[in-house]
Amino acid sequence: xxxxxxxxxxxxxxxxxxxxxxxxxxxxxxxxxxxxxxxxxxxxxxxxxxxxxxxxxxxxxxxxxxxxxxxxxxxxxxxxxxxxxxxxxxxxxxxxxxxxxxxxxxxxxxxxxxxxxxxxxxxxxxxxxxxxxxxxxxxxxxxxxxxxxxxxxxxxxxxxxxxxxxxxxxxxxxxxxxxxxxxxxxxxxxxxxxxxxxxxxxxxxxxxxxxxxxxxxxxxxxxxxxxxxxxxxxxxxxxxxxxxxxxxxxxxxxxxxxxxxxxxxxxxxxxxxxxxxxxxxxxxxxxxxxxxxxxxxxxxxxxxxxxxxxxxxxxxxxxxxxxxxxxxxxxxxxxxxxxxxxxxxxxxxxxxxxxxxxxxxxxxxxxx
Length: 368
What we know:
- The structure is a single chain.
- The chain starts with 8 loop residues before the first helix and ends with a helix.
- It is elongated.
- The chain has helices at 9-15, 19-25, 29-41, 47-72, 77-96, 106-141, 144-158, 169-180, 196-203, 345-367, and strands spanning 182-190, 214-218, 227-233, 237-261, 267-299, 309-326.
- It is of the alpha/beta class.
């Protein structure tokens, strides 16, 4: 790399303290470059800043050349990627301050750009070659993991903004993805036929769990299926337990008027109160809705890494009825002489739908 002389400013800046000068003298060339560029862009005019900016870029170019040369001696493509990234970061710094840099640096920058353009092609070719090798292995062993590895390698090549039609990369990606996909089919069995439609409708949402290398279907078992999840809903169990308690109430209520003579001899009406009592018999009917669910896994290939499991979802509801006895005037407004069912069929349907939602959530979280 060429060496440049910026008068005596280079010597002066090393002796200065603080700011970009100190960063440069400490060997922090990137920080010195950025700080000098920031000061220049803010309008500060100083020959020392110009020298720091240019000398820092020269040092950064030298460092990048040394580091990339060492990395490119490797046979590992990931090391080539690191070299490519180092050059890209340097070019980004250069173009951020290009208008303030000496034109003598252009030759070095153009060479780095040319080298990185060639390096990008080498990286793409290397990833594609490795991917082709993995697909050849898949062709022999039919091992889906080899196809998955090939897809990831092709994808690494595509990340370099390569036109996907080049090297037939688009077709290679699609072929590897199809070959590496694990197919999972879900089926649902329901003891209570009345809930079958709602459960199946809800569990069809498991198809949304498609992910890279995974395709989930519902009731589409076929020869390509690698793994089948048979979800079996047992009979919905409803257990009932009642608890009864009695609360007694007493209240003074107005019960007419008495006529009396006051101290002036006038007749006055005086309210008359009487004590009334009543009792409320409160019956709490506690219903526990419980659903046991079993998931049986049918391994159709070696790529099914699921296992059998059992789940249980439950909800409790309390239905409260009141029976009153005695004088109604003693009973608080919160109670009524009403023994009608307070938990309707619609309420029960909503509760059952909540149980179905909970079972879907638990199974989905466990397997996907």
